[in-house]
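Why do we care about 3D structure at all? Because function follows from shape, and shape follows, mostly, from sequence. That is the central idea of this module. The next example makes it concrete: a single protein chain, its amino acid sequence, and then its structure expressed as tokens.
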Amino acid sequence: MGHAREAAQDRPLLWSYLDSSGKITIGHVADGFGMSKTQLAETAGLARETLYRAERSRGAKTQGRLREMLEIISRVMEWAGGKEQAMAWYRAQPLPAFGGRTAEALVKDGKAAAVRDYLDHMALGGFA
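And the structure:
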């Protein structure tokens, strides 16, 4: 039951950036967060060129990394106070459970699942 609610919670933000084929539209994400494609690439831990080349920006690795970032931002939007505040949290808030590393640093290292688990734990009243 909890997963269905979480999935529904993740949808609005993520879905707002998908094109008709179900791929994340890089330009829309960058615009939506007031970033350049270069800044978005840096935030997602991707090479700058990746987001400027259509074939690479639609690749599985790029799409997966952006999807992870958007899912985590979606999870914190409500208590962070909005999309921009959630992005600021994602990029800058040190997480005690991860030695002070940020969600951004963890996702860049392929640890998005650990961040999602941490957020689930916190949502259930856990402590950092």
